Request: fold
Amino acid sequence: MKKLILVGRSGSGKTSLTQVLKGDSLHYHKTQYINYHDVIIDTPGEYAENKELARALALYSYEADVVGLLLSATEQYSLYSPCCTAQANREVVGIVTKTDHPDATPEKAESWLRLAGCKKVFLTSSKTGEGIEELLEFLKKE
Ligand SMILES: Nc1nc2c(ncn2[C@@H]2O[C@H](COP(=O)(O)OP(=O)(O)OP(=O)(O)O)[C@@H](O)[C@H]2O)c(=O)[nH]1
Ligand SMILES: [Mg+2]
Reply:
């Protein structure tokens, strides 16, 4: 199984996605620090929002095989600048979260992730389980 690091702003659904990928029940837990011992590296959203902390994300990405850039389908804007995936020396995939939300615009989030440079984009919901199987399949593939 590929080791995945999840990156995205606070509230984008990284911890919820970690829980469903691991088959845990969904329960709210504010991420306080980078949990890198696990097969999924969950990071606090503040690391993606703050320039100083963002450096740590670059370092921890070296511990992973794949970087997952999360963007909620409810977002009105994107943190990711065009082609920012070029900065990573790991494969970067896009993960649209919260596709189940009544205000969701998954196509918009997907196009922002593609603009950021993600070739592969998964449309997911941790509430309904949409896209989780596909993501697991991808992680299991060599
Ligand atoms: N509707 C819906 N809500 C979700 C989904 N995933 C997460 N949420 C909600 O979004 C909120 C934030 O989710 P988290 O998984 O804690 O987000 P996070 O990215 O880990 O946030 P930080 O730890 O602060 O970086 C919680 O209230 C979740 O219940 C989803 O697929 N659908
Ligand atoms: Mg979290």
About this structure: The domain at 4-140 is CATH 3.40.50.300 (Rossmann fold). Residues 14-15, 31, 42 surround magnesium ion (ligand 2) (CB under 6 Å).
